[in-house]
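Recall that a protein's primary structure is simply its ordered list of amino acids. Everything else, from secondary elements to tertiary packing, is in principle encoded there. The following example makes that idea concrete.
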Amino acid sequence: VQLQAFGGGLVQPGGSLRLSCVASGLSFSDYGMGWFRRVPGKEREFVSAVTWSGSSTYYADSVKGRFAISRDNAKNMVYLQMNSLKFEDTAVYYCGAQKGLATRGWEDYDCWGQGTQVTVSS
């Protein structure tokens, strides 16, 4: 099983980025997918999750209304559209896969990608 996240970069406050995560080696449509982020010295933080069908999505309060998660099961891809970025969104972003569910707890996820750095700076 392999997850690969990409699309991070340097962006100014108020800008946008779209993160992508491609999965291989698993039956993608059996898995809920989540995005988490981590800054040095802090725990991995839930950002967003989407159920296997894409019919339900979940967001941390800190990103609600600014970020949007989506998936394309035909391409084994999950996306995180990030708008109105703030300094505090700076982190390494990870995608995770969870069999059957899409919870907010990072410990519930079965596998992880390597992370992609997002830096919001002027």
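The CA atoms of residues 35 and 116 lie 11 Å apart. The radius of gyration is 13 Å.
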